[in-house]
Amino acid sequence: QKEVEQNSGPLSVPEGAIASLNCTYSDRGSQSFFWYRQYSGKSPELIMFIYSNGDKEDGRFTAQLNKASQYVSLLIRDSQPSDSATYLCAVNRNRDDKIIFGKGTRLHILP
Amino acid sequence: EPEVTQTPSHQVTQMGQEVILRCVPISNHLYFYWYRQILGQKVEFLVSFYNNEISEKSEIFDDQFSVERPDGSNFTLKIRSTKLEDSAMYFCASSDRGSYGYTFGSGTRLTVV
After folding, report:
1. Measured between CA atoms, how close is B71 to chain A, in angstroms?
2. A81, burial (CB in 10 Å: exposed 0-12, middle 13-18, buried 19+)
3. A88 and chain B in contact, CB less than 8 A
4. I need a labelling partner for B65 at 20 to 30 A (CA). Which of A70, B21, B27, B88 fits?
5. Structure confidence by residue, pLDDT tens digits, A23-70
6. If you measure CA to CA, which chain A residue comes closest to B41?
């Protein structure tokens, strides 16, 4: 069974600090890894995706991938109250494959 | 910015009734998807659709479910005989480059009573 595991949280982080979100996956055939943000009652929105080992930065967000450890993470620098949401980790095998989502980690930024 | 539009935003139906959930994907997108999210649970894949046919479906997508692209713009999900456990938020998504660029619609909350 292909699974994506995340700590459900809530993860509480003071405003301005770095939030660190983690995810592990079971399918070694996974090639692409996604982070989505989902506000309560809303649809998921793509933050970024990564497919190579290492770090990928986009503004305040950095995704980190370690395929040997089957581990993906998302760092959010200078956390803002508007970053409070559920963050979904997702994976797939290739462009034509479906995306499989984890259950998400609830992040709460403390003002 | 282009949007994926879903209607209705909320539908209440009686158990055993048929429902049709409607989606208008972004106009130049070729890949279409339905996902669902039961309250408090993860977003689950139902079906993907490309080149006017189903490309993949999950175990959830049984004979009660069907999809259609009836007129080149709409993409519909039909549930023939709804069950209580079909209550969920249903999300449509479309993409012009497979799974690398999903845009989700705002969802239809289906409540089966």
Report:
1. 24
2. exposed
3. yes
4. B27
5. 999 999 999 999 999 999 999 999 999 999 999 999 999 999 999 999
6. A103
